[in-house]
Amino acid sequence: MLTVNVHEAKTHLSRLLERVEGGEVVTIARAGKPIAFLTPVSQPERRLPGSDRVLMSEDFDAPLEDFAEYSAGDDPEGDE
Fold first, then answer.
1. CATH number, domain 2-38
2. Mean pLDDT across the stretch 50-72?
3. Whole-number Å distance between alpha carbons of 4 and 26
4. Please, are residues 24 and 2 in contact by the beta-carbon 8 Å criterion?
């Protein structure tokens, strides 16, 4: 782990960030006392929306027993 003072961190921030992007952790110190860490940000795992939540049964589009009268063509109002 690399330790740099505040002045050096301000002067060489771009270089330090390149090292951090490479996976290194940089400690920033004031008067030799650590005050902050520069660490790489972990990227969340990419997922496909809904791929882990949608479950559909094989008969999802099968006629429902409760609606058999509608599928038979009966008029629900009884006007026929």
1. 3.40.1620
2. 77
3. 7
4. yes
Pairing state between β 33-38 and 26-30: antiparallel
Q: What is the DSSP string of 46-71?
A: P--TTTTT----TTTTSPPGGGHHHH
> Measured between alpha carbons, how far is 3 from 25 in angstroms, rounded to an integer?
9
HSE-CB at 69 with a 13 A cutoff on CA atoms is 6
- Structural tokens at position 65: 């027993």
pTM exceeds cut of 0.85: no
* Backbone CA torsion sign across 57, 63, 65, 70: positive
* pLDDT tens profile 65-80: 877 777 666 555 655 5
